Amino acid sequence: MKGVANRERGAAAITIALMLIVLIGMAAIAVDIGFGFNERRQDQTSADLGVMAGAIDAIAGIDTMRDQALSYAEKNLTTAYSPAQWQALWEQCVDTELATLNAGTWNFQAVTPPAGWTVTDPANWCISFDPSGFLRVRVPDQATATTFGRVLGVNAISTNADAIARTPTVGSGGIRPFGLGNNVAEGSHECISSGPTGLATDPCTGSASGNFGTLSAPLFGNPALGGYAPNCNAAPADQILAVNISAGVDHFVTIDGDGLAANEILDECYNPGVDTLNTDTGFPNKGAAEGLVTGPIQRGLTPLIQQGTNAKRDVVGYQLDDRPLWSYLDPSLAAGGPNPAGSVPASCVASTFNNGMSDFDWNGDGTLDRPESWQHISRCLQDYVAGGFSTVMFDSLMQDTPRFGYLPQFWEATLGPGNKWRHIQRFKAVWLQGLWFKDGPSWVEFHPGESCACNPGGANWALKQLSGFVLPDAALPDELRGDPPPFGGVNPYTAELFR
């Protein structure tokens, strides 16, 4: 037995040594996997920040979105690349998930790479855009060198990440299917839309031929709005117009840098970076009335001026938003010149909008107007612009009212007749103000917050006119104005990480 014991002496040490090798190997692999997980987290940060940087600059167009995404993705990776290495990395990048995404409700299209780049798979490149307003970034594969894994033949761990950002419009306003010519001034009270048999009541001028203020925009089928069926023909015109008035244009449109037809991107399914919109062939009374006031509207939408939680007024049988623009004026502002901080024109002091004050001829037509009247707020806006004021005087809560929204202002002076393409120069914030209804020889003019015989009976009231105030950019808080884009105007888009 003594010989056997001698032969087994040291066996435990061998077993322990083998176990230690296994344990150390496992620990080494765990360390390398940890490095991989850390790199993967960094990749995700890079994708998230890159896609958000691109979405924040959406108003500047697709190329700027792409360049910002590339810049911020690089800044947030652990590996430092030379310009040549960075270009080569992206040229070889392929987003293998695009086909799967687009088999559902998405319509991602790879964007054009920077000038001089030659990508391996242009259709599946790693920066893509869904024309509904979604930017996607897939960070190219990142190789993390292993420390101990090389013993097992694993020299590097490959990781990547992707992210999608959305570019919704600010607040509930959206971009409405009405347009402004390039000669429309800030602070003006404008005829937004008027039928060929309009009332010719200020600020509308009545009968005209061709287009009457509305735009024809197809439905792209925005996946963030329920994945409803697209309608690329924008027909029937009245039904699609009603949808776009109620919900806002459902896809991304941006500014045109030069207004030239040579590089225009038409509003057709599924063009990314649309910067050129089409005018309607006329004033579709049914579509405009349904979208603004009467309904019914496809997809169960509510007419625009019936939306929101503000107090309502019965106007020709419909419950319509009755909160006026002056109710959003900052009550802390005082009258003064344009330079002192917190000063506004005397006509814009909130306390003067009180029917207990004396009547005044606010618009200079020889008749007295109530303090709570559209003539008073119109004078306020005109004085603000003419006096060179820059004080923010409106509350950001106005974004929650259905009367606040964004309209494209075109390079062209007029909308022209129907079926004319118009190039977007800027966006302006607009307050939808007056509604005019006609029944035979009788008509009703409704302005929110003002007294009127708004429900005189009868069942054949037809909407004939819509007016609005073009709000001065400087009078709006930052969250409604955004980063000022080129050519002035406001930025109607915000950015949010979608997934």
Q: Would you mind describing this structure in some detail?
A:
- 24% of the residues lie in helices and 19% in strands.
- The chain has 2 domains: 9-166, no CATH class; 189-329 and 394-493, no CATH class.
- The strands form 4 sheets. Strands 5, 6, 7, 12, 13, 14 and 15 form a 7-stranded antiparallel beta sheet that branches. The protein has a 5-stranded antiparallel beta sheet with strand order 1-2-3-4-16.
- Helix 2 runs antiparallel to helix 3 (62-75) and helix 6 runs parallel beside helix 7 (285-294).
- A hairpin with a 2-residue loop joins strand 8 (312-315) and strand 9 (318-321).
- By secondary structure, it is of the alpha+beta class.
- The model has no long low-confidence stretch (mean pLDDT 87).
- The N and C termini lie far apart (71 Å).
- The protein has helices at 2-8, 11-56, 62-75, 83-91, 98-102, 237-247, 285-294, 374-386, 478-481; strands spanning 109-110, 127-130, 134-145, 156-166, 189-194, 215-216, 276-279, 312-315, 318-321, 334-335, 343-344, 404-410, 421-439, 442-446, 462-470, 496-497.
- The protein has 9 helices and 16 strands.
* Helix-and-strand structural type: alpha+beta
Helix coverage percent: 10-25%
Percent of sequence in beta strands: 15-25%
> What is the CA-based Rg, rounded?
30 Å
Main β-sheet description: 7 strands, antiparallel
Low-confidence stretches: none
State the distance separating the first and last CA atoms: 71 Å
**Counted beta strands:** 16
Number of domains: 2
